[in-house]
Amino acid sequence: MNAHADEIDLFALFQSVWQQKKLIIGCTVAVTLGGLAYALLAPRIYEVSSVLRPAALNELDALNRSEVYKLPPADALSKVGAALESYETRLEFFRSHQDLFQAFKRPGQTLEQSFEDFNRNSINLILPDPKASNTLSSYIKLEMQYPKNVDGVAILNGFVEYAIDAERERIGADLKVIVNNRLNELKGKIAAARSNYKTDKESKIASLLESDNIRRAQLEDELKALRLQLKEQRKDRMAELTEAISIAKSMGIRTPTTPSSMSDASHGSSTQVIRTEVNTQDIPLYFMGYETLEAERTALQKRTTDDFTEKRIAEIGKELQMLRINRQVQELNKRSNEDIFLKDVFPLRAEVARLRNLNIDMDRLKLVTIDRKALQPVTPIKPKPVLVVVLSLMLGLTLGMAVALLRHFIHSYRASHAKALLATPVLLDQSGKVRGKDDDTTQ
After folding, report:
1. Is-contact 52 368, C-beta < 8 A?
2. More confidently predicted of 24 and 180
3. 278 or 105, greater pLDDT
4. What is the DSSP string of 203-258?
5. Of the candidates 307, 325, 319, which has an alpha carbon nearest to the alpha carbon of residue 215?
6. pLDDT digit string (tens) for 196-210?
7. pLDDT at 388
8. Using the 8-state DSSP alphabet, how is residue 379 labeled?
9. Sign (positive/negative) of CA torsion 225, 227, 233, 239?
10. 218-244 residue pLDDT tens
11. Cβ atoms within 10 A of the Cβ of 160, count?
């Protein structure tokens, strides 16, 4: 067999394909018509999108200046993005706006099953690539694909507003809880300060009263001891006077005199002499004369109290009178508004007043900026007629060429096989069976 028989004759191949041009054109036209029919009859799918960006700093200034809830713009955008991605938020929006989702409901499906179909295929959340260097700021993009009989613009814009409102309400609820917790904490601190003040006040009053009682007892003991001392001194004086009276009577001293006078009287001197005595020793008491001494003793015997003889007793009486009423304790008990005396409570009260008067309009709080709202699309994204027709044309042409080439190769194979059979001699063996040339040679 010739070696060139296995090689493909390109000219013959082209001539064979050209001869089947009607088949190729027919396949091309048929597939193109099918693609055109699909482009004309397939349901139209539209797409809308919305872009959210961080809010300006001044939009969140009132919330951040409250010193209760810190929310930078980037965090606010993240919170809204989490709400947009939340299954619960989407389900609640689906439940509350069922009139917008009639096209997604299927007979025999529950509300949750219909929502699953919508949630799985309709809304996609797109975030910027953190590795991309051409992104100037963070953003969140939402894309939604929907059929012709669905108001996708209303759904997407409504869902964005619903998620923002839901997150705003959640932040407002968190703020309210935080403020209430802070108020309770401050009230607890004020109550603790009030309790500490009451304890300190009672302790101070008890300490003052105890100090007064101790001082009063000491003064009374001192007064009793002084009176006992004065009484003993009076007894001693009376005993001394009695002894001196006895001596004066025995010496005949009736009136006060001095030792010198007594000496002159004993010598009987008539010369009048004025003497001046300088004596560093005390003159015995009996020189006062028994009349004087008896008068003093009588006065001491009639005395009912010795308090006037000791100045300290009057001072003790004054101190005891002062201790009858403790004015400091009296004023402490008379306090009507004790809160004004609490220590380190003024800042706490100021903070309580500030938190109670904290007025943040959550309805006007702008968490994010809607950079682009969803707008009604002009043309559907699916199907694309021109692309479908072009692809159908190319597919039809490719399919026609493939069929033509397949027919050519099948025809060539059959023709070459038939020629090979005709070129081989037919021999019969003794039994009448056909045998080939090779078999005869072998025998």
Report:
1. yes
2. 180
3. 105
4. HHHHHHHHHHHHHHHHHHHHHHHHHHHHHHHHHHHHHHHHHHHHHHHHHT--S---
5. 319
6. 989 999 999 999 999
7. 81
8. S
9. negative
10. 999 999 999 999 999 999 999 999 999
11. 23
- Where does the pLDDT of residue 1 fall: very low under 50, low under 70, confident under 90, or very high at 90 and above? very low
Q: Indicate the domain borders of the chain.
A: 11-32+400-443, 33-173+363-399, 186-356
The answer, yes or no, to whether residue 440 has pLDDT greater than 50, is no
- Considering only residues 427 and 407, tell me which one the structure prediction assigns the higher pLDDT: 407
Is-contact 62 171, C-beta < 8 A? no
**In the numeric block, which tokens belong to residue 70?**
């810190």
Please report which residue ranges of 130-151 form alpha helices under DSSP H: none
Whole-angstrom distance, CA of residue 163 vs CA of residue 169: 10
For residue 5, give the nearest of 411, 407, 405, 412 by alpha carbon: 412
pTM above 0.70, yes or no: no
Quote the tokens at residue 116: 């699953």
Q: What DSSP character marks residue 107?
A: T
Q: What is the 3-state secondary structure (H, E, C) of 50-103?
A: EEEEECCHHHHHHHHCCCCCCCCHHHHHHHHHHHHHCHHHHHHHHHHCHHHHHH
Instruction: Write the CB contacts of 320 (distance below 8 Å, at least 6 apart in sequence).
Output: 216, 219, 220, 223
* Predicted local confidence at residue 168, as pLDDT: 92
At residue 219, the pLDDT reads 94
Q: Which of 321, 339, 244, 222 is nearest to 289 (CA)?
A: 244
Length of the chain: 443
Residue 143, φ and ψ in degrees, nearest 5: -125, 140
In whole angstroms, what is the distance from residue 296 CA to residue 286 CA? 12
CATH number of 33-173+363-399: 3.30.1890.10
Place of tokens 């009048």: 272
Query: And the tokens for 405?
Result: 């080439």
Residues 6+ apart with CB under 8 A from 214: none
CA dihedral 380, 386, 392, 393 (to 10 degrees): 180
- Report the run of H or E that residue 124 belongs to, with start and end: strand 123-126
Mean pLDDT over 368-372 rounds to 90
pLDDT recorded at residue 406: 82
Where residue 429 falls among pLDDT bands split at 50, 70, 90? low
